[in-house]
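[step 3/7] fold_predict: job queued, chain A
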Amino acid sequence: MRLVFASNNAHKLEEVRKIMPAGVEVLSLSDIGFHDEIEETGTTLEANSLIKAKAVYDWLSVNGGSVIDGVFADDTGLEIAALGGKPGVYSARWAGSPEANRKKALAELADKSNRAAQFRTVITLALGDREMIQVEGAVQGRIAEEEYGEGGFGYDPVFIPEGYDKTFGELPAEVKNEISHRARALQKLVTALNMHKSSTK
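[step 4/7] structure written:
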């Protein structure tokens, strides 16, 4: 099965390729020659995920995507309880850069005792028969007092997943790829793909 992952984020692409099972080839946007900017105008993770998947699927239908089985896109947000769920859908562009985003999160929580947070990923899969499948995965945790670790990307150095005493920035990639929000959403996506394949036999 050949699927396009509708993202230009090299870190996400590497993560996704490690998590997806054998037999599923994951192509990047550059692999298919897609270089358009997709405006994420949605106000929810669900909406943005759908916008991205549909944009690439529609582009492929015009530009010879017959060898592609489907397109999937994710949108991920960090939802901090003491901030009313912010930054949420605006996580990637909250303060302008990954470093500024992390600093803003730590600053906003400086006087807060409740540091609970969750990462949530929504994935939309657009299949060749115009069917849309949407799944989500989440991981609970808390925001650290400061940044720890050089691994991962985005908010990883300040997010400590439940059951651990290290941030995603400190944990080995293989551990993160087992427990992360994206991993959990991808596991549901694989289940949905298997069910879809069974129903079309």
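[step 5/7] annotate
The chain has one domain: 2-199.
Strands lie at 2-5, 25-27, 70-80, 87-88, 116-127, 132-143, 159-161.
exit 0
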